[in-house]
Amino acid sequence: MRELDVEGHTTKAWLTQTGRKRPGRTIDQQHIFTLLRNRIYLGEISHNGQWCVGQHESIVVPGLWDGAHAFIERRKQAPREHAAKHPALLAGLLFAPDGQRMLHSFVKKKNGRQYRYYVPYLHKRRNAGPSLSPHTPDRQDVGHLPAVEIENAVLAQIHAALCAPQILIAVWRSCQQHPAGCTLIEAQVVVAMQRIGDVWAQFFPAEQQRITRLLI
Questions:
Q1: Nearest alpha carbon to residue 213 among 130, 51, 93, 86
Q2: Radius of gyration of the chain from its Cα atoms, rounded to whole angstroms
Q3: Residue 147: is it exposed, middle or buried by C-beta count within 10 angstroms (0-12/13-18/19+)?
Q4: Which of 139, 108, 107 is nearest to 122 (CA)?
Q5: What are residue 84's phi and psi, to 5 degrees?
Q6: How far apart are CA 75 and CA 79, in angstroms?
Q7: Are 107 and 95 within 8 A, CB to CB?
């Protein structure tokens, strides 16, 4: 994708029916994936939703096609496995200033340490590839934002909100209505809620994410 950009390649330019020229766009990750999935290059043609052998010659041999798609599947699987093991606290909740959904991403350094980030959707599409440095900002968006700092800032706001007087009173009243908590006094509830940060640290990441989503 970067080589195509450096060489000046873009998508096809075209003219509208009114004669207005539409310039080609920068070739991004999604466009390349569309090209890689085009079975016309295998000598096939689509008919009624099915791919059939066409009359034109293929320009890609099956072995190269299979190898490329096996690589794509491995590339897609790594983020899925990481997301399953390490659920992102703000996944699906965080958006860039221009409204773009922020995706959870990570970079593994040569020293073995792993750094997590939230990245705008379009930034990830335009800057795909393991060689991208998270410290090289894109002029068109906010780039990589440190995940730990953002998550800690959000958690601080959540914990502060849960310790607000009106919330403490509501929790105490809710406890009084529950058979197991009807003997609790207000002071016990206040102390417990003020220690919510200690309790939170004991939750599994998936549970933290579920509660955060409910609270927000």
A1: 93
A2: 25
A3: buried
A4: 139
A5: -70, -40
A6: 8
A7: no
Phi and psi of 46, rounded to 5°?
-90, 135
Q: Across all residues in the chain, what is the average pLDDT?
A: 81
Going by C-beta distance under 8 Å and a sequence separation of 6 or more, which residues neighbour residue 143?
A: 119, 120, 123, 134, 136, 137
Side-by-side strand order, sheet with 114-120: 102-108, 114-120, 145-146
Measured CA to CA in angstroms, residue 136 lies from 146, 148, 167 at distances of 13, 19, 42
DSSP, res 82: H
Model pLDDT, residue 107? 76
Question: Is the separation of the CB atoms in 78 and 86 below 8 Å?
Answer: no
Q: Which of 9-23, 66-80, 130-144 has the weakest average pLDDT?
A: 130-144
CA distances from 24 to 3, 12, 148, 172 (A): 16, 5, 38, 62
Output the CA angle 190-193-196, nearest 5 degrees: 155
- The tokens for 63 are 């072995």
pTM of the entire predicted model: 0.53
List the structure tokens of 140: 């068109």
